[in-house]
Amino acid sequence: MYNILLFGETGSGKSTLINYFTNFFLGGSLTNLKVAIPTKHHKATEKWNYSEKDLHDSSKSKTRDCIDYVFTKDGITFNFIDTPGLSDTEGTVKDDENVIKIMAAAEKKENLSAIIIVINGTVARATVNLRNTLTLLKGSVPDVLLDNLLVVLTNCSKATANFDLKQLKPWDVPKENVFHMNNSALSIPVQRWKDDEDIMEDLVAHWNKSMKAVKAITTKIKQLGYKATHAFRDMRVKRNKIKAELHSILLEVKKLQTLQDELNGAQGAEKDVANDIQKYSNYKQTKVVKYVEMEDTPYHSTICMTHSKICHENCSLEYTSELGDEIFMHCKCMRYEANCRKCGCDHSTHYHDTKKPVKKKKTIESILHDVKALYDQNTSKKLDLEKKISDLSADIEALKHALDVKEADIEKCCEDLKTLCSQFNFVDELQSIIDTMERDARTLTNVEARKDANCRISNIAQLANKLSAN
């Protein structure tokens, strides 16, 4: 079976071309038209499923889905796949939906013999809609199928065609792959020509030339053979992966903002805790204490036991070990008096010793336990915060690395897609997601997260421009 995919702008004549093929294969004629797809002026005569709507509105695509029209002649089967028209008044979103439908239909067939691009041949200069359609076409057809491109210029003959094939550049379609058809027989009501010999004469001539063109197209299709459609599948897989990775980047950038906010919060808390640690670091207090310590001497002295005080140093009396000995009544410190002149005590409180009390000072450290508790609490917090900061920093770096990997994967997928379809429009493919990323980036309140997001958006935009420019 020869599978043939029809591509074209809304109103270019794809469905009418199918009807011409219907007449060619089913033996139709001007007076016995075979209509597979209903038109503004003709009802369907054949029992095919079709998806034609808005037949009287030339600004809208009549075909809503990809429909197969299968014909067999001389034991050879041809399957013509009619597709939704591009660049109608329903906008770019509908175009994107239709392109996905068309590429899915092509992929499903496993092989194609030809892709027929249907263009209104009366158009001399490409309109905005036609330029948009050609851009969509060029970005949808894998390079492996470019040798199987056929162009059908409708509403004209070879002599009257105005369309300049240079507008298909960089596609280079050989002249032998370009066909002309005047489809006036199906574009005007029968009432206008059935009783008018002049119109009838013109229509017969147009009809015969169109049938001749149809036959030539089928002959060319057989010559082209078959091309596998796995490139459509590969393009779909690459496009889906690019979109999935970009969507993942959107989510990860938001996660990066959350982590960066947590990190900034932890760093701020660490500074506060560090200040508190400094504030509570004086939990130790010191004070100087005076005390008396007995030190050895090479002589004995008279000492008051009550006051631990030397009343007569280096006493000249004979040493006695008895406390309160009457000998002390003759000590220089109390001689001729009842009480000691130094301490005011009587002799009974005095004794001899080879030591003397020495007044000393020492510094004693005391701990303010309530302040120490606050110091320890904040020290513990600081350790916890330092670990949190370390973990968050590691998470952020890991997330940035993951984003870098995703960017590299996107670039690799784009390059692979460029290899599959050299005219793929990366700007158109990526612009919507770039717009979404830019919109989301404006909602980021973290400076570092926004800076990282803007850098990644710029990288993707530059990649799209670079690949589309080549």
Automatic annotation (TrEMBL):
Keyword Coiled coil: yes
Transmembrane segments: none
UniProt-listed Pfam families: MMR_HSR1
Residues covered by the G domain: 4-124
Record-linked Gene3D superfamilies: P-loop containing nucleotide triphosphate hydrolases
Entry keywords, A to Z: Coiled coil
Recorded coiled-coil stretches: 382-447
InterPro entries, A to Z: GTP-bd (IPR006073), P-loop_NTPase (IPR027417), Sigma_54_int_dom_ATP-bd_1 (IPR025662)
PROSITE patterns, per database record: SIGMA54_INTERACT_1
UniProt cross-references to PANTHER family, sorted A to Z: AIG1-TYPE G DOMAIN-CONTAINING PROTEIN, G DOMAIN-CONTAINING PROTEIN
Protein name, as recorded: G domain-containing protein
Taxonomic source organism: Aedes albopictus
